[in-house]
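Design request, tokens follow.
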């Protein structure tokens, strides 16, 4: 429902527009007499009425000044009205001029309106059209969703960085293991080269021996070598100058390994004090030594055979080398 001031504002506006009294009465819900009174008071017309002409109200004066494109500040100064009252009258004026939507926006935004206007002019100066502004507003509506997505991506990035660090650590461990294995392979390769060289040398010797055997089998030299080795072995067997030293070495070696066996000498001396050697005494001494020291003789025999084998092989090797 319209207030008294709003009704009067409508009347004044429609009078300025030269509208008929009937139209004004219908729009303002005022009687013809009230409209006539407002007309005389505002427009200064002195019709043939007996009533004394009233002075226009502050509201009417403000509306009239607004209709003459005066700013709210100018009207407030001229009429000496409170700014809040001027704001109220100005909003009514805008509503009467078909700008009710703007009035509603002002009521809703109030203190935020200057910022909104600045924002609009900034966009306008930047060349943003309605489509671009709509896109910006849509983006603003999605700010929370975008923030959530950014947080998710940041967490995902953190997880990826942790995974990358773990993979780098694993790669470092693998590099260390590869280095250890590489060092081992280098050592083994060096050993392999040494073994291969030895094998090559043995192969050469084997080939030389095979060649020697092959060449000797069909030659007189092979038979000569065989005969010489045989004669040498027979000579060694019969040569006391060889056998006796070997036997003595075997005896000394047994005594060196077990000094307690020296007791055989003292037992022998105690048993045979006459120091004479003849057939009968020799036989008794031989039996005494053999039966009382059979283990000792077995040890001497083993060492003697070993020495004999080494000595024989050495002689044969020298003969073979000299023939080759």
């Amino acid at each position: 429902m319209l207030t008294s001031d709003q009704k009067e504002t409508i009347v004044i506006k429609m009078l300025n527009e030269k509208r008929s009294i009937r139209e004004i009465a219908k729009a303002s819900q005022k009687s013809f007499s009230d409209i006539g009174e407002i007309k005389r008071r505002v427009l200064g017309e002195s019709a043939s009425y007996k009533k004394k002409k009233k002075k226009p109200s502050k509201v009417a004066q403000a509306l009239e000044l607004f209709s003459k494109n005066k700013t709210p500040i100018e009207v407030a100064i001229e009429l000496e009205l409170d700014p809040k009252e001027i704001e109220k009258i100005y909003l009514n004026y805008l509503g009467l001029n078909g700008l009710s939507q703007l009035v509603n926006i002002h009521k809703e935004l109030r203190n935020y309106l200057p910022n909104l206007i600045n924002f609009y002019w900034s966009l306008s100066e930047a060349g943003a059209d309605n489509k671009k502004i709509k896109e910006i507003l849509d983006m603003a509506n999605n700010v929370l969703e975008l923030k959530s997505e950014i947080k998710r991506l940041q967490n995902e990035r953190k997880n990826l960085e942790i995974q990358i660090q773990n993979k780098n650590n694993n790669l470092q461990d693998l590099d260390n293991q590869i280095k250890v294995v590489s060092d081992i392979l280098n050592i083994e390769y060096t050993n392999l080269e040494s073994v291969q060289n030895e094998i090559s040398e043995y192969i050469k010797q084997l080939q030389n021996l095979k060649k020697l055997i092959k060449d000797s089998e069909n030659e007189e030299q092979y038979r000569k070598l065989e005969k010489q080795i045989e004669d040498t072995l027979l000579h060694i067997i019969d040569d006391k100058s060889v056998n006796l030293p070997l036997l003595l070495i075997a005896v000394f070696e047994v005594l060196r390994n077990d000094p307690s066996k020296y007791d055989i000498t003292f037992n022998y001396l105690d048993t045979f004090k006459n120091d004479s050697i003849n057939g009968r005494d020799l036989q008794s001494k031989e039996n005494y030594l053999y039966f009382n020291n059979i283990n000792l003789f077995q040890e001497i025999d083993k060492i003697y055979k070993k020495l004999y084998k080494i000595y024989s092989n050495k002689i044969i090797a020298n003969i073979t080398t000299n023939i080759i």
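Comment from the thread starter after seeing the answer: thanks! The two ends are 144 Å apart (CA to CA).
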